[in-house]
């Protein structure tokens, strides 16, 4: 599958930091005068260095180049998301930025949008319903900035899923939780059996954020975080935030995550190992957990690994079908592109094309493209691929991981203060006050 899905999440976290300091780099963008159009100019597409994914991306590029006067050339920049983001930041400030830029949406491109550096694709999408409707709405909409489309989905989807040990559940006569009350009963049940209810890699901080994201979504719906991301005054004081933080502290007190979760890592397989060895019954994690378990604990992945949606919450305003996580990666178009028309034509012709979709599926991705249910049998994990596709297909909204969606200055305070909440060293109100102070 190229880089493991675990490394994808690492890149997602790192690449949102668009304000990294770095020595000034020579412009690595397109050749030719900025703003020139047509004439068979070469449109350069910046992406991460990933041998398997770059082969997939070249499937689309080679097909487009066969029938277009404008050409697209793939430029893999770095395998490190932070390095890529830093080089992109410098290049976007130069006269010759990349024409097409791989990105994570939201916080990773908001500065470029505000500076007028990216093409608003709303009019093109709205004028071509077949193009717009070729993508799952919740994922396409997750690429919006202030209600306008700046990104076209170009890779697979990575929602956060509630994984459970289905063999252990069967032995204990239990079912995955449909409601939050069910979840609390399972916490108490497994604790009584001296089995840790949930694995949690709190040392890495970002796994804890998934709990806040889902609980806020279920309590208040997607507008709670949309208001935060838009910087609206008082958004952090929405009651759903305090409710979710209180629920988290209740889970900690109940022993949902054991006693040393803030010393357990995820990146080096601490939480995954607890889960695979049957020492933890459940694990809230992104879809990359499947490939990590296949790679590290194949027998467990093949026989014991079950998956379910995050449960509904009584009296919550959020739709129980809504999901959080990493909707996908996107291609955006620079306003300084040497040929914006060719860049947009490439996205329109290729990002949902059958050959490209097939290549993504065979590489292990689940594309955000409509009408591909039958194709998913070609996935390395067909059952799980179909599950992920159907989960997102019926989702009314797909909220991007908060540390990706917010501006870079929020990431460290968000994760550090949430870790304090989990550790019982900070109250919900103190968390809200700390995040309100970030400017």
Describe this structure as you would to a colleague.
With 439 residues, the chain is of the alpha/beta class. Helices cover 45% and strands 13% of the residues. The chain has helices spanning 5-15, 51-66, 81-92, 110-114, 122-127, 129-132, 137-142, 166-171, 180-192, 206-220, 223-229, 239-254, 270-276, 288-296, 298-303, 340-350, 354-362, 382-393, 402-405, 411-422, 428-436; strands spanning 42-48, 71-78, 100-103, 144-145, 148-149, 152-153, 158-165, 196-199, 280-286, 305-308, 323-326, 330-333, 398-400. Strands 7, 8, 9, 10, 11 and 13 form a six-stranded mixed sheet that branches. A hairpin with a 2-residue loop joins strand 4 (144-145) and strand 5 (148-149). The longest helix has 16 residues, at 51-66.
Strand-helix topology:
Layout: H1 5-15, E1 42-48, H2 51-66, E2 71-78, H3 81-92, E3 100-103, H4 110-114, H5 122-127, H6 129-132, H7 137-142, E4 144-145, E5 148-149, E6 152-153, E7 158-165, H8 166-171, H9 180-192, E8 196-199, H10 206-220, H11 223-229, H12 239-254, H13 270-276, E9 280-286, H14 288-296, H15 298-303, E10 305-308, E11 323-326, E12 330-333, H16 340-350, H17 354-362, H18 382-393, E13 398-400, H19 402-405, H20 411-422, H21 428-436
Parallel strand pairs: 1-2, 1-3, 8-9, 11-13
Antiparallel strand pairs: 3-12, 4-5, 6-12, 7-9, 7-10, 7-11
InterPro entries: Bact_solute-bd_prot1 (IPR050490), SBP (IPR006059), TAT_signal (IPR006311)
Organism: Actinoallomurus iriomotensis
Signal peptide: 1-27
């Amino acid at each position: 599958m190229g880089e493991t899905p675990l490394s994808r999440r690492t890149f997602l976290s790192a690449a949102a930091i668009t304000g990294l300091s770095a020595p000034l780099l020579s412009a690595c963008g397109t050749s030719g005068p900025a703003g020139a159009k047509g004439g068979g100019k070469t449109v350069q597409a910046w992406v991460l260095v990933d041998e398997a994914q770059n082969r997939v991306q070249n499937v689309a590029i080679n097909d487009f180049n066969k029938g277009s006067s404008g050409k697209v050339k793939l430029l893999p920049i770095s395998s490190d998301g932070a390095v890529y983001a830093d080089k992109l930041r410098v290049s976007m400030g130069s006269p010759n930025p990349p024409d097409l830029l791989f990105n994570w949406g939201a916080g990773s491109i908001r500065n470029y949008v505000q500076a007028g550096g990216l093409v608003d694709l709303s009019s093109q999408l709205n004028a071509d319903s077949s193009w717009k409707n070729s993508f799952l709405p919740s994922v396409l909409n997750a690429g919006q900035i202030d209600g306008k489309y700046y990104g076209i989905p170009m890779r697979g989807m990575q929602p956060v899923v509630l994984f459970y040990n289905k063999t252990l559940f069967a032995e204990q006569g239990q079912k995955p939780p449909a409601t939050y009350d069910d979840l609390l009963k399972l916490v108490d049940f497994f604790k009584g059996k001296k089995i840790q209810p949930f694995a949690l890699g709190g040392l890495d901080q970002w796994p804890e954020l998934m709990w806040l994201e889902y609980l806020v979504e279920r309590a208040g719906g997607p507008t709670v975080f949309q208001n935060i991301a838009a910087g609206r005054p008082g958004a952090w004081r929405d009651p759903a935030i305090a409710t979710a933080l209180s629920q988290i502290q209740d889970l900690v007190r109940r022993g949902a995550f054991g006693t040393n979760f803030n010393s357990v890592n995820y990146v080096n397989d601490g939480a995954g190992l607890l889960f695979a060895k049957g020492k933890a019954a459940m694990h809230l994690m992104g879809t990359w957990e499947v490939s990590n378990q296949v790679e590290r604990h194949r027998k467990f992945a093949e026989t014991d690994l079950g998956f379910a949606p995050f449960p509904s919450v009584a009296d919550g305003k959020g739709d129980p079908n809504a999901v959080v996580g990493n909707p996908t990666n996107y291609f955006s178009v620079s306003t300084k592109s040497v040929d914006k028309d060719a860049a947009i034509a490439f996205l329109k012709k290729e990002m949902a094309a059958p050959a490209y979709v097939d290549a993504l599926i065979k590489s292990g991705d689940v594309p955000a493209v409509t009408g591909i249910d039958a194709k998913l049998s070609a996935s390395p994990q067909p059952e799980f691929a179909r599950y992920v596709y159907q989960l997102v297909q019926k989702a009314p909204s797909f909220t991007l991981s908060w540390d990706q969606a917010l501006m870079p200055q929020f990431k460290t305070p968000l994760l550090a203060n949430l870790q304090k909440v989990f550790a019982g060293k900070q109250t919900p109100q103190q968390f809200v006050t700390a995040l309100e102070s970030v400017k």
